[in-house]
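Bump. Still looking for EGF-like domain-containing protein structure tokens.
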Amino acid sequence: MTIPNQLENEVTSQSQSHLSLQATDEVDVDSVIFADRESSFKTTTDATTQPLSSTIGSGVSTIMENLSPKDLATLASLLKPLLISQDERKQNPKGGDLEESALHPLRTPQETVGDEDKNAGKSEDEANEEQWHNPYTESTYSLFYLCSVNSAAFWYAFFVYAIQITTILLTLIDIVDWGGSGLDLPPNVDLIVTIAQGVALFQAIAFQSDLLEVVGKFKDGFHPEVLEKHPGATYATWLVSCIAQLIAALLLLLTIYILTMEVDSVLGIMLNFAALHFMADIDNVAFDLAKAGFMGNMLKNAASDVVHFQVRKRKRSEDQGILQRSWKSGVFLLILIGMVGGYVAIVVFRTSGKYMCNTMIVNMGDNFVPSLGTFNGLYDLDFSAGSGLEWRAEYVERRSVEIDAPGKGVFGYCNDIKAWTFRVQTRDNLEDSDPCDWIARSSNTDTYDITETGRIQWFVRDETNHEVVLEPFSLVCFDCSNEDVEGSNDCGGKGICSNAVCDCEDGWYGLRCEFVSPCPWITIHARTEKFASIRDWATGYQSIDLGNGTLVEAYHRPVYIHEYERGEYDVVMFTGGRWALAASKFLPSGGRIQASDLSDGQDDVGSDIGNFFKHSFHGYQGFSANFSVAFLSDYMEMGTHWSSSSPVGFSWYFAKTVKDQNQNQAIGNGISTEFVCHVCDESSNPCLYDGKCSAGECVCSLDSRGSLCEIPPVRNGHCDPFFNTPEFKMDGGDCCESTCQSTPEYICGAAERGYVNTGYYYCEQPKKRWQSSLLNGAAGSFSGYSLDLSMRSMVVSEHLQDRVRIYDKVERSWVLRETLIGSAGTWFGRTVALSSGPFHVVSNPSFKAPLTIAVQDSYGTIHIYKCIHSNCTQTQAIPLVLDFDLSDDGTVLAASLFVAANQAPKVIRFYEAQEGLFEFRADLNVTRNGTLADVISLSLSGDGSKLAVQSQVSGFDSETNFAVVTDVYIDVMAWDELSGGYATEIEFLFESVVNTMFPPLSMALNQDGTFLAYGYPNCQGAQLHLNFRNDEGVWMPRRAPQLNTTGCIDIEHPDRNNALSISDDGSRIAFRLGNKVRFYRWEATFKFWGSLGDDSPFTHYPVAISPDGKEVAIGSPEGGIGGVTTIYSLPGRKECPAGMSLLRLSLTHDSLPTGVVWNLVNNSTGEILFEQESYPLEYAYATMVEETCVPMDSCFVFTIYKEQNGGLHAPGQFALFMDGENVAQGTFSGLFRREQIGSCASCPTGTEPFSMMMLTCGPMEWTLLKLIGGGESGITLHSEDTFDRDYDDTVYETYNEHWMDQCVGPVFSLSYNECLDPTECHVVNVHSPNKNTAFLELVFGEQRVNARPSAVCDGEAFFVGQKDKCNQEADWLNRKLQRFAN
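Sorry for the wait, here they are.
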């Protein structure tokens, strides 16, 4: 075997035991390469690296010398796999070719020999300089430099750098107070922490691999030969990567330094050091991830390229100095010196108190230790307490030092209990003062920074010497961050901060200028009580201004005084936690120090009181034997929303008397006293409830009162919608009748001293909840046996005592007006009926509704009474009546006449009211098939125009001895003027009954007789039927409410008690069923009867409902000791459908109501909503009320005429309300007054409404002219006459009667409305060809012209507008008037 074959076999056997061989077919010797230096074949001979020929062994070397070039090539291909590094084999397990960029040039044996020759005679160091090395570490900074900008590896390295630098910067931002003091260095730390900080700084530099690496890079410099393999690795990219790495390293070192010095525990230092070490390794970890292939093959190959990259070491120049050779050590030493120097400086400053808070502000509660609050305020660092390592400072109360008090408050640290404490250090115990002799202490803590205890609990001892939590408590550093800088941020930009206190600009006040200037004048809130004791305390106090805006202060708050008597004051002052009120004679030194009594160094402020509070006053009563206060306020916690510059708004208490002289007074019983600032300001102290501030004084509106209008007008009898909210308890109840109470200023539900009835539109109480009131009868009277109810009046019988009581509703109470007394033993009041007249009247201070009352006794006699005001007189008696009814308006009385015992009535007699008496009107016989029927019961409509009759035909069966009844009917009859009697309008068959007398049914007709309700009120067989007359005049049934008889109990009661009652409009029903009364309301929208409130719970007899359906009266004669009458009221207004508004008219007459004519017309449709002509004289000063629902989008015209007495005069007046809002009100003089309300077209801007009204007996013409050219000419605007005009029935017969002696024929009326320019002159010319009588009235803005009949018979001109523009002597006008006259 040849030598090459032998070598091949030997090498092949060796290589197969280690790796798979994959040789190339042809290899050039000059291009043979090998992998990394760690896995190359090496041999060690005399500790010197030998050439390649000696690495295989001397035997192989000899063989190689004899090889031919061909054999040598074969050998190279066989050795190639053995020369691949271990890492490369792992990365290329299949034995593929490696990239050339990962390998180094391999020199041939001949070159090796040459190198050996070259190294012959050289020293060892010189030989080392020729070695190869990799100058780049395995980090992303190497990728940053070597990889092309367009490669993924470059951007991966850039991203990692961005993450690393961002993390470092965020940490720096967090640990440095950029807007304040900079470093957050602890005031002091334990000695062991100081040592640990020094050690950590050495560790920080030693472990800063990035810093050491980048220093080495700068020393090694840039290698131009790299460009051969990496064209993008320029000097610029090398420099950028080095600078980036240097910046990150320095920032990280700075972060470690700051965190180390800011931490106050050894564990904290170690934890921070470990955490920051992770930041330093971000680039290395990212590189390892790329090298391991987690970031993809491209990044893996790039990382491998960095790992195997090598360049030849540079030779060291023989002329390098020691600094050049050791500059890495120099940089390291320089950084170390800088960090150690900073460390030493911080330790020195720390031990001297530089990092401690100089001034802090303290706020301590006084619930358990009353004196603690007086030591609130500023505390200054006491440098005399010591210094050095592990030194804790003490803080002394500034105020006690400033006034040279006999003691001072001190905060210090007690090592025994490991807590910060507060104590009072007096001159007597100055030497023995021990922080462990505490009044208040913190929780256990090792902190050197006392301000940190402001976030933990503090404790005091209670009366039992147990420790309890001190609340409130706050303790914060109060140093100026910008000392003596104008516009300092400490002062909110409003002053200069010096020694922790701000000198504020004008208009600002407080330690930090946090308040506007304090109130100069405080007064007791008008809604609260005055200070009450044996002394008469003042109600107003003023601050003391020493000039230039300087105030006399106590605890940085103004002092307020009032001179009680000469030389003595009432003083309101702040005592640190609470405001106090005291008499100056109970203050130390009498609350005054004269200038001559001041000590050296104490300046005179120009006021004895000022001298006392500046140089002597301290709130701690233990500092003075003569010090007590009378009242204390709520605690004021500084720095919270309760903090204030004045005592405004605080509650007050009596100050307790204490036995311990060294203890302050505590709060006692509370009093309802409160201060307000008397001086108003639109921005800082505005007037309340829409009041206006004028020159510091409030001009109140909405009836509010007080210096700031602070007393809302609630519970004053006047409903104000502004205060009708839960916050003001629904205006104190003023908006609902059941809760309102009149006052001397207002009458509930009324205005203008009671002569305008406003109602209760804004009442917000639940509208289906009854409000009840009770009237108790006298013992044994059987009160409530019978009753009746009108608009605001009620009659209740006490028939066992032969009495009938008359009540009027005055506001929310039923007040007895009069008592009617009948003959003894007649059961006077067996049945009663009441009428308040044809008008809806309400009482006012001058008027009570005239009443007509009908009272029946057991003999069947009806006694008629007329009540005018409080005088009731019997006017007549009608005998032999079994059943009767009185119309609500008092105009008709219907009675079924008694025939004989045990016989039903056959005849109904009608009476009509004539001049105060009921005169016979007609008799009515009810027949069935020519046979007279029995009249069982009857009911009249409210206006007396309709009658409902229950009748039946009966006989007597002699065999069975029973009455035989067939066919019970209900008839509705209407009055017929032509026949002078009632004619049947509709008939209803109720039931057919045999062998019994059917009992009377309960029946009721509404006001106009278009709604009928009748029913059977017993539980057994209970029935209720409802019928109504539609617009076509046809009677229709209406579904009745379902009668629930559960729990119903029948009772014995008089047959003829009214058990059914309905409102005027038929929408509400009260029905007694058995022993209970049910209430129902018609829901027009859903067409059903809804239950209205709850059933009445008592056993009842009669029931009556008011015309408006808002009140129900129920009699319970068996209740109580003498019977009970219960009146239920529903709060709230009349309800209107959607799209409708409630229109209310209140009209009060003057002394002559007989000449009043008025109407209310829907101007949009012409519909007359209300109208009335003339009132009886007995209605003088009466108040009439009408309500109706009207469309929201309509215009309405109210016109009232009254020629007699020259108009409507006070207290007479009218008022119109639309949805509770007063839209028109007033009186008038002359003939008429007209008001437009609602959605009416208003006059254009620059014009005012003009109205003309004329009444005349015959032909009349008039013209409206606008004068122009100074009155030299005119333009006709309107002309009208009464020629060929028919009688105007809108003017009522009242005027015909009044003018009967002046007019022949009817009265004509003319009216006209227009919008005219008030700056122009207008003339109205009136002319009657026949010289007829006329009455003229013109209204234009505030101008009103009245002309009597004699003034216009021959023609006359009347001027309105800007009269000075009128030339009333103009020739053309005279000619025009003359033409009319002729």
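The chain is about 20% helix and 35% strand.

Edit: fixed formatting.
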